[in-house]
Amino acid sequence: MKEKPWYETSFDEFYLDLDKFAHSPEGSRKEASDAIALLGIRERSSVLDLCCGQGRHSIAIAEFGHEVRGLDLSKRMLDAARAHQLAAGVDVTWIHADMRDIPAGLELDAVLSLYQSFGYLEHRNDDLEVLKAIRAALATDGRLLLQVPNRDAVAKDFWQSRFTLLPDGSHLGEVRQFDPASGWLRLTMTIFRDGSSQRREFRIRLYNASEIEQMLISAGLRLVQVSASLSGAAFNLDSDRMVVVASKVT
Ligand SMILES: C[S@@+](CC[C@H](N)C(=O)[O-])C[C@H]1O[C@@H](n2cnc3c(N)ncnc32)[C@H](O)[C@@H]1O
User: Fold this and answer.
1) Whether residue 202 has its Cβ less than 6 Å from ligand 1
2) Which of 101, 159, 185, 201 shows its CA 20 to 30 Å from the CA of 121?
3) Can you give the residue ranges of the Methyltransferase domain (predicted)?
C-alpha cells in the first residue's frame, strides 16, 4: 500500500500542542488585520483562508465582517477551528479538502495562504496546480496573498539544529536538512516531556521571490507586491519570509 504523504499525518495533536506556544490570539488577530489591509479589499468581502489550520486567521477575519471560508485537509485541525469559531460566535464555512481542490464557482474577493502552507506537495507542478486552483476561484478583480519562507534567506543563514525550552517546561528539538538541488527543506521536530518524546517530520519546498513570480505568471496571476511581512516591511535578502500579493490576469 502506498505510504500517505507527510502532510496527511503531521498536522494533529502534536502540531496543536506546539502552535499554542508559537502564536498568541492577539498576534494572530494582528496578522489577520495586517493581511486584510495589505490586500486592500472592500467591506464584507468573500475570503478563503487556504490551509486554515485551527482557524486562527479565519475567525479573526470573520470578526472583521467578511464572509469567510476556511479550507484544510486535516480533520483534527478543522475540529479545533470549529470549536474556536463556536466560542467566538461568528460564521465561518469550513471545507475539508486538499488545497488543489478548491470548490468551483466561489468568485472570491481574496484567497490567503498564511504562515507557511505552500510548497508541501510532492512535485513542483502540484504547487503550480494550487496557484491555478486559486486563480480559478478568484473573481475578476480578486487578489491572492501568499506568505512563504524566503529560500534565499533560509539558505544564507542556514541553521541545522536547535534546542528550545518551552513555556510548560518541556523541550523542543529541531533538526533541519536543506537540499539546494530540489529546494526541499526537511524539519524533524521532537518534543521531550516528562521523560518521553514525540516526533513529527515536516517538509516544505522553498522558493525565492523570482521563482514565485514565474509560477504566478504560469498560473495566470500577476505579482502586485512583495513584502517581508504582513505589515508590508521592505523585502530583502535577510527577510525570513515573503508576503506576495497577486492579482488575476484576465
Ligand atoms: C503550518 S499549518 C498553517 C495553518 C494556518 N494557516 C496558520 O497560520 O495557523 C499548515 C496547514 O496546512 C494544512 N495542509 C497540509 N497539507 C494540505 C493540503 N494538501 N491541502 C489542504 N491543507 C493542507 C495542514 O493540515 C495545516 O493545518
Assistant:
1) no
2) 159
3) 47-142
pTM of the model: 0.97
Q: Is there a domain that residue 72 lies in? A: yes
Q: Of 101, 105, 91, 96, nearest to 44 (Cα)?
A: 91
User: Distance between CA 43 and CA 56 in Å, rounded?
Assistant: 20
Number of domains in the chain: 2
Binding site membership of 115 for ligand 1 (Cβ less than 6 Å): yes
Report d(CA 199, CA 144) in Å as an integer: 33
pLDDT of 250 reads 85
Q: What is the pLDDT of residues 31-56, one digit of tens each?
A: 999 999 999 999 999 999 999 999 99
Give yes or no for residue 135 CB within 6 A of ligand 1. Answer: no
Share of the chain residues as helix, strand and coil, in percent rounded to the nearest 5: 30, 35, 35
For residues 30 and 68, membership in a common domain is answered with: yes
Q: Which domain holds residue 50?
A: 6-149+208-248
